[in-house]
Specification:
alpha/beta, Spore Coat Polysaccharide Biosynthesis Protein SpsA, Chain A, UDP N-Acetylglucosamine Acyltransferase, domain 1, seven-stranded mixed beta sheet, 5 helices
Length: 425
């Protein structure tokens, strides 16, 4: 089958990079898509924005490259489309709770059509043709709570909840969608699928229990649920609960607690770190007592001691100093707003939401960030009398290093589209 990739030209703030190049599940999005399709498609074609689909006569799968989807959603769509053997376009019901709550806000990538939304994912049994029929895919959503909180922090029950799909798809139009795709749909969804399988698949359940008894570990700590790569050094006092994936050459210190995470290669997790429902990119360093909750850190990052990130996204090669605080809740009520695909502030539909740091940033110690604020790529920030509390998005022109005598010591690596950067050598 031929795979046709439609390029999405939008660059995501604050990274100044297209969605396809950003990491989700510790992979660039384009690589995640390629790996899922490796056993399904044999050839591929990539088309720039505005290009016409080729006239070919063979089965084709067409998708836009800002889409995150998992194997469960893709298989459900392809199975149904092949069964009816007509040109089909993926669609999702407007009443699907996960789609309504998490995908629609801040997005411009879906086409409304009555009581459904069309997605940029097509299947053609004999080459592209106009007017593909919508094929509604059930995301199999279930509501899961993640915090029991005082009633003033929640809408009704005193619980903060997510709508978790067992089949995931989301268009990446905002940094918030990276958080949703990686932590909510990716890690939370993985945990929900494992729980469902344990409840429904007796053979799998017996295998997990048998493995835990053989290894002398708790069920959530056994090797059936915790996958560890090669050449890792893990202190016996570390606590690791599955489902968790740990890459190669990883060091985990005493007292570290890791629960339902993806840890990349060459990562150092020092003593007493706390990691939950988070993705940690290759080459990341977490000194002692760093904490991550539902947070994505892309490759080669560092979060210094005594810093806690909740529901945040951090780009590659960025440093966050000791004692920084990313707040995530509006104390006086009201919606938390974030930038949508067009750069406009819109309700995020999240009662609790952290912030986003771009690529190649350096944030000094002791800063406090309001919820949903963005720090553009290549920014350097120092705490000072003039700026200790960050109450707005920080753009590159506000970077503290530009006031130094030699600002070239921190080169700009991620300019906005259309901008030119002077050579620093």
């Amino acid at each position: 089958m031929l795979k046709i990739i439609l390029q999405c030209p939008r660059y995501l703030a604050p990274f100044n990079e297209r969605a396809r190049d950003l990491r989700i599940q510790n992979q660039p999005l384009w690589l995640h898509q390629r790996d899922l399709l490796a056993g399904i498609t044999t050839n591929e074609m990539e088309l720039p924005p505005g290009a016409r689909l080729p006239q070919v006569h063979e089965p084709c799968l067409v998708y836009r490259d800002n889409l995150f989807f998992d194997a469960e959603f893709l298989n459900a769509f392809l199975t149904a489309a092949r069964k009816r053997q007509t040109p089909s376009r993926a669609a999702i019901s407007a009443n699907d709770a996960a789609f309504r709550e998490h995908c629609l806000p801040l997005s411009v990538s879906y086409t409304p059509a009555g009581d459904i939304y069309l997605v940029d994912l097509w299947y053609y049994p004999d080459g592209p043709v106009p007017n593909a029929e919508p094929l509604v895919v059930d995301m199999q959503t279930r509501e899961l709570g993640y915090y029991h909180v005082p009633t003033y922090m929640a809408n009704e029950t005193g619980d903060l909840t997510y709508q978790i799909p067992l089949r995931s798809l989301i268009a990446i139009d905002s940094w918030v969608h990276i958080f949703i795709a990686d932590c909510v749909f990716g890690l939370f969804g993985r945990g929900a699928r494992v729980e469902k399988r344990l409840n429904e698949d007796l053979a799998f359940k017996l295998k997990v229990i048998g493995t835990s008894l053989y290894e002398g570990r708790q069920v959530l700590q056994c090797s059936s649920l915790v996958k560890i790569g090669r050449n890792c050094s893990i202190d016996p006092d570390a606590v690791i609960h599955g489902p968790t994936t740990i890459g190669d050459n990883v060091t985990i210190g005493a007292g570290a607690v890791i629960e339902n995470c993806i840890i990349g290669d060459n990562v150092n997790v020092s003593q007493d770190c706390q990691l939950m429902l988070s993705g940690v990119g290759d080459g990341t360093f977490l000194p002692f007592r760093a904490a991550l909750f539902m947070t994505t850190i892309m490759e080669h990052g560092m979060v210094a001691q005594n810093t806690c990130l909740q529901m945040c996204v951090v780009g590659r090669n960025s440093f966050i100093g000791a004692g920084n605080t990313f707040t995530d809740f509006n104390l006086v009520g009201g919606a938390i707003r974030a930038r949508d695909a067009n750069g406009e502030l819109k309700p995020s539909n999240r009662p609790v939401l952290g912030g986003c740091v771009g690529h190649n940033c350096r944030l000094g110690s002791g800063l406090i960030f309001y919820p949903a604020r963005m720090i553009e790529s290549d920014v350097v920030m120092f705490a000072s009398k003039e700026r200790r509390v960050v109450d707005h998005d920080i753009v590159y022109e506000e970077s503290d290093h530009l006031r130094l005598k030699n600002p070239g010591i921190h080169p700009r690596l991620y300019p906005r589209p259309g901008e030119e950067v002077e050579e620093t050598w």
